[in-house]
Amino acid sequence: MTAQCISHVVIHGSVQRVGFRAWTEYTAAEHGLEGWVRNRRDGTVEAVFAGPADKVVIMIRACRVGPRGARVTDVDQREGTAADLALRHPDAAFSVLPTA
Predict the structure, then answer these.
(1) Distance between CA atoms of 17 and 44, rounded to whole angstroms?
(2) Least CB-packed of 23, 42, 62, 88 within 10 Å?
């Protein structure tokens, strides 16, 4: 059995106005992950992924490429917390949050 983990990422590059949030929501659901994604005013995309560690690693690897049209230049990653995860909508496994 794979350990559960929470990871917080910030994706840099040309990552807004290319469907990154919708792609992230869809891809996270495909991997059975919980969490959220949102645009940030500085032009980055921020996300929290929670679930089996191997699936979270796969998701973060996918974020280094993103959807068609995205040009990812860097992904900052840190261990996430339960407080990070709690920002999602309470009735959803994965949420697209408003811009922060």
Answers:
(1) 11
(2) 42
Domain boundaries, the chain: 4-90
Left if phi > 0, otherwise alpha if psi is -120 to 50, otherwise beta: which for 88?
A: beta
pTM here? 0.95
64 tagged catalytic:
no
User: 6-15 pLDDT, tens per residue?
Assistant: 999 999 999 9
- Architecture per CATH, domain 4-90, reads as 2-Layer Sandwich (3.30)
Of the listed 39, 61, 71, 88, which one is catalytic?
39
Residue 97 class from Cβ within 10 Å (0-12 exposed, 13-18 middle, 19+ buried)?
A: middle
Question: 21 catalytic, yes or no?
Answer: yes
